[in-house]
């Protein structure tokens, strides 16, 4: 999800334009822990993914839909060749509707409130096909971009959350969010994102959160699905990919800038996670972006 990179794990997500705060990203790789002010719907296209949202784990398979509330700490880990799309609903997309009492009665809660919870809509749900049809219509409208598609997408989003208010019962889910852990981990992500290319130790992060090293490691893995070392490595690789596309720096220079001790180690780790060497990925990315 390189297009979402920024200098903080509080994402400045790239939306379509200032007048239409909406976008869709099609993803095959791990999305590292982050949060943003926008509401998000995850739609699994193939395979299965593990989605961590404020410490709750949702295992979603092809066809499943997961709701991620705004400001939620979340990460997505696909299994094998799985694919998913992230539908971002900007926090200002419906600003002109805020005076509408009918809108505020239902839609406002899901898009603007920070007090709601994540949920998963599986194919076993009695009304699943209604939700799936809406998601598919949104994807089709984005693909075709026929005149008026902005209005159709807004209508689809409103209908989706009206159906949620009717058919999704939160009591089916066991929410044991520990907000203290979430806020502590956000401090870690903020610090790590600004210093990812330097040596960062688990001891330093444990001290930052006032936890023991063992407790910090347990909490981090439980809330993200990754170890802290894996997280730092993935962040460095994302920044490296970004530099491959946006600059003409050599692979050796990129490896140094992103915090890898040697270019050989960088190449080995890159291939482990990306299944291609850096030069191959750079070539394919630049071709795609051309």
Account of the protein in words:
The two termini are 18 Å apart. The longest helix is centred in the middle third of the chain and has 19 residues, at 149-167. Helices cover 46% and strands 17% of the residues. Mean pLDDT is 88; it is low at 1-10. The radius of gyration is 20 Å and the shape is globular. It is of the alpha+beta class and 290 residues long. The strands form 2 sheets. Strands 1-8-3-6-9 form a 5-stranded antiparallel beta sheet. A 4-stranded antiparallel beta sheet has the order 2-7-4-5. It has helices at 101-112, 128-144, 149-167, 179-194, 202-209, 213-224, 228-246, 251-257, 263-274, 278-289; strands at residues 22-27, 31-34, 39-46, 48-53, 56-61, 65-68, 74-78, 83-89, 119-121. Helix 1 (101-112) crosses helix 3 (149-167).
CATH topology of the largest domain: the name is Jelly Rolls
Percentage of residues in strands: 15-25%
* Radius of gyration, whole Å: 20 Å
Structural class, by secondary structure, is alpha+beta
Order of helices and strands: EEEEEEEEHEHHHHHHHHH
Strand order, largest beta sheet: 1-8-3-6-9
What is the number of helices? Answer: 10
* pLDDT averaged residue by residue: 88
The CATH architecture designation of the largest domain is Sandwich
Q: What number of domains?
A: 2
What characterizes the major β-sheet? 5 strands, antiparallel
Q: What distance separates the N and C termini?
A: 18 Å
CATH class of the largest domain: Mainly Beta
